[in-house]
User: Which sequence fits this backbone?
């Protein structure tokens, strides 16, 4: 029994798998170190197989040198797109870092080798909750859908114009800081007001040494009000997943 395999389809499959695999190595939630590298490679090949039939229409065969160049460009494209998604979701990690900084938890920071995050309790907790919500709410499907749509903006082997990706990264960095302040803003305002109140109390009654109560007071306020942040976290994760998908489809 003969199984004819089109050479154009096979080349498209390999190129698409390279872009998918490079993207999965960098972009959250797939970049988590708990996911083995071979699973990421298998998932990349599976996603490449899903889009290969559509992309093979009109594909022109290339020589060996041209195909190797196209493979390198696809790896670079996948890494750039993955880094763009990582910038979008870094807003949650930055919000957790701000909360740790203002509440005093920053003194107990540590490096998490699974999530590749260096932060204190709220940084790692919010990051872990966001990754869990991405899988539980099927938000990762939006990210994969945006990656599949990137082939329309950046065709296979067509090269990578750095103007649009750099512009998208610049906008993503600006949006990351803005989103981080918006996420952690209400809690930060309460913590700053607590510091102001302690300062006024110290001026009125210096013998009370009110700042000695500052650390436990801010810890109590943070733990008491952090629940409201986690109530809004599912909506924030859905919004960031949609923003990541739109960024992937608009880099061309």
Assistant:
């Amino acid at each position: 029994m003969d199984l004819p395999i089109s050479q154009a389809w096979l080349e498209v499959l390999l190129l698409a798998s390279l872009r998918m695999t490079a993207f999965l190595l960098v972009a959250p939630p797939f970049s988590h170190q708990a996911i083995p590298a071979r699973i990421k490679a298998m998932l990349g090949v599976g996603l490449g197989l899903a889009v290969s039939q559509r992309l093979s229409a009109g594909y022109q065969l290339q020589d060996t040198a041209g195909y190797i160049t196209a493979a390198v460009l696809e790896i670079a494209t996948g890494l750039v797109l993955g880094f763009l998604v990582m910038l979008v979701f870094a807003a949650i990690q930055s919000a957790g870092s701000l909360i740790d900084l203002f509440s005093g938890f920053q003194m107990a920071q540590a490096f998490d080798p699974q999530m590749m995050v260096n932060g204190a309790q709220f940084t790692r907790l919010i990051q872990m909750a966001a990754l869990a919500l991405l899988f539980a709410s099927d938000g990762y499907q939006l990210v994969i859908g945006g990656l599949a749509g990137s082939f329309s903006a950046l065709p296979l082997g067509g090269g990578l114009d750095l103007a649009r990706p750099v512009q998208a990264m610049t906008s993503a960095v600006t949006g990351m800081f803005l989103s981080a302040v918006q996420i952690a803003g209400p809690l930060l305002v309460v913590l700053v007001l607590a510091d102001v109140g302690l300062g006024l109390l110290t001026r009125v009654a210096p013998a009370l040494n009110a700042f000695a109560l500052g650390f436990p007071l801010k810890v109590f306020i943070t733990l008491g009000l952090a629940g409201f942040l986690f109530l809004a976290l599912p909506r924030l994760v859905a919004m960031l997943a949609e923003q990541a998908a739109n960024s992937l489809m608009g880099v061309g």
Q: What stands out?
A: Residues 7-247 form one domain. The chain has a mean pLDDT of 79. DSSP finds seven helices and two strands in the chain.
